[in-house]
Specification:
Order of helices and strands of chain A: EEEEHEEEE
Structural class of chain B: alpha/beta
Strand order of the largest sheet of chain B: 3-2-4-7-1-8-11-10-9
Radius of gyration of chain A: 15 Å
Number of domains of chain A: 2
Distance between the termini of chain B: 15 Å
CATH class of the domain at 3-113 and 208-217 in chain B: Alpha Beta
CATH topology of the largest domain in chain A: OB fold (Dihydrolipoamide Acetyltransferase, E2P)
CATH topology of the domain at 3-113 and 208-217 in chain B: Peroxisomal Thiolase, Chain A, domain 1
Number of helices of chain B: 12
Largest sheet of chain B: 9 strands, mixed
Largest interface: A-B, 32 and 35 residues
Oligomer: heterodimer
Number of strands of chain A: 8
CATH superfamily of the domain at 3-113 and 208-217 in chain B: Thiolase/Chalcone synthase
Strand order of the largest sheet of chain A: 4-5-6-8-7
Order of helices and strands of chain B: EHEHEHEHHHHEEEEHEHHHHEE
Helix content of chain B: 25-40%
CATH class of the largest domain in chain A: Mainly Beta
């Protein structure tokens, strides 16, 4: 499979797949739909909007590069498009907050960063 | 039918200078001698993995090192659930007549063999390599995410979670082999260093050196008579990003199947051995299993329900939280302690009645579950 042009490869985008057969959205990229097995998948760009499902602020990081950023908030966001994703978030986010994404540098990578939607 | 005929356990903590193979060998020697068998009588070997000394064929590396030539051998990898998964496989192997005596062994010099940072980095790799690991999460963060959601949905507080750390420490104080020997309070847990919110240092199990082993046999070899009544697994996901809703996690599925396999109910259980990598893990699993209603496990800890003298003694050796966690061997200590309790050999920790026990293991981020009922034959 070709690499997606999204944040996992350094591009300012969150991409996901939608199954042509069962219409389920899928975030963890594969060559087939994990729900029904169909191989016809459309690639889409997410709006970056969603709701906070869970949060955990990491104080004890394990590498020199990530320690420089601590404390940082790891969040799970339920996106408007119907899939769940892990990302970074503002440290004051609470479960249920409506959020939108921008992109920041973290340990020499580009990562999605969610803030409370205005 | 299958019996757990022998158990072996080292102390957990620092074993300066010992390798993973050394710790596995020590535990294996203890288990085989406990089963009143000779090495040559062991015809099956199942072992876990070592993050310090990874190998593509650890079971045969161990067999050669230990000096046995089994007719069945391989490694098993299901994270923290590996020990119970190996026991389940051994049960089916002896029941099917493939082998007579399976040695199940795990051990690792995880504390002195590598830095804590290296352990944290190695374990974080259970996350997705493209969509999670680049974000810098740690195992405590994966569980911290689950904890934040569980607390939100069921009204559990950080002080509630602290009760589980205090209980495990209280139990560990009675075991000379435990890694920690200083009593702690709820206030100590709440004041300990933040790791990955809401989890603090004392909500987390330590990194340890240690080894544990069992022998699973088709027929009893001694007077232990601890029988595997039934077991089951459930695997719902690998990555926390892909985990189902809290009400649909694998523990409930695997417990339901184990009940069916054994014909037993939770009300039959007299002793509980439940995976406790973090306080939240223990709280959730106890409630998933049905030892407490949602959000109420902590109040059962406070009332003494899970204490040594209580109605459902739990992890009387101190669990992963306070006996220690050396990887695969970590949760195997739960089974060793259960066996000692069931055979009346737990000394100052002995509970009144451990005739029927339920064990539950978890691997990954509540990804892989194994449940097992053990019964003492009279």
């Amino acid at each position: 499979m070709s690499k997606p042009a999204d944040w996992t490869t350094g591009h300012e985008a969150i991409l996901y797949q939608v199954c042509a057969a069962c219409e389920r959205p899928q975030y963890l990229r594969r060559g087939f739909c994990a729900a029904c097995g169909a191989t016809d998948l459309a690639e889409k760009r997410a709006s970056g909007k969603g709701t906070v499902y869970a949060t955990s602020i990491v104080s004890r990081a394990a590498t020199p590069e990530t320690r420089a950023h601590a404390p940082y908030n790891i969040v799970l966001v339920d996106t408007a498009e119907g899939f769940r994703m892990m990302a970074h978030g503002a440290n004051d986010l609470a479960i249920g907050d409506p959020v939108s994404a921008r992109f920041v540098q973290f340990a020499s990578r580009l990562v999605p960063y969610f803030e409370r939607a205005r | 039918m299958s019996y757990i005929t022998g158990v072996g356990l080292t102390s957990y903590g620092k074993h300066e200078g010992l390798t993973s193979l050394d710790l596995m060998s020590k535990a294996a020697e203890l288990a085989i001698s406990d089963a009143e068998l000779k090495r040559a009588e062991i015809d099956g070997i199942l072992c876990g993995y070592s993050t310090v000394s990874p190998h593509i064929m650890l079971a045969t590396v161990f067999a050669e090192h230990f000096g046995i030539r089994p007719s069945y051998a391989h490694a098993v990898q299901v994270g923290g659930a590996t020990g119970l998964a190996m026991t389940m496989l051994a049960h089916h192997l002896v029941e099917a007549g493939v082998v007579k005596h399976v040695l199940v062994v795990g051990g690792e010099n995880r504390l002195t063999g590598q830095s804590r940072d290296a352990s944290i980095v190695a374990l974080a790799q259970v996350g997705h390599p493209d969509y999670e690991v680049p974000l810098g999460p740690t195992i405590p963060a994966y569980y911290g995410l689950v904890a934040s959601r569980y607390m939100h949905e069921y009204g559990v507080t950080e002080a509630d979670l602290a009760e589980f750390a205090v209980l495990m420490r209280t139990h560990a104080l009675a075991h000379p082999g435990a890694q920690f020997h200083e009593p702690i309070t709820v206030a100590d847990v709440l004041a300990s260093k933040p790791v990955a919110s809401p989890l603090k240092l004392l909500d987390c199990c330590p990194v340890s050196d240690g080894g544990a082993a069992f022998v699973i046999s088709r027929e009893p070899t001694n007077t232990a008579l601890v029988k595997i009544r039934g077991c089951a697994q459930a695997h719902t996901h690998q990555h926390v990003t892909a985990a189902p809703a809290l009400s649909e996690l694998g523990a409930e599925i695997s417990i339901a199947k184990a009940k069916q396999a054994s014909g037993l109910a939770i009300s039959d259980v007299r002793y509980a051995a439940v995976y406790d990598s973090f306080t939240i893990t223990l709280a959730m699993l106890l409630e998933d299993i049905g030892f407490a209603k949602r959000g109420e496990a902590a109040s059962r800890v406070r009332s003494g329900y899970f204490s040594r003298e209580g109605e459902m003694p739990l992890n009387t050796h101190g669990g992963l939280l306070s006996y220690g966690h050396c990887g695969v061997g970590g949760a195997m200590a739960h089974l060793v302690e259960t066996h000692l309790q069931m055979t009346g050999r737990a000394g100052n920790r002995q509970v009144r009645d451990a005739s029927l026990a339920l064990l539950h293991g978890d691997g990954g981020v509540l990804s892989s579950h194994v449940s097992m009922f053990l019964e003492r034959e009279r």
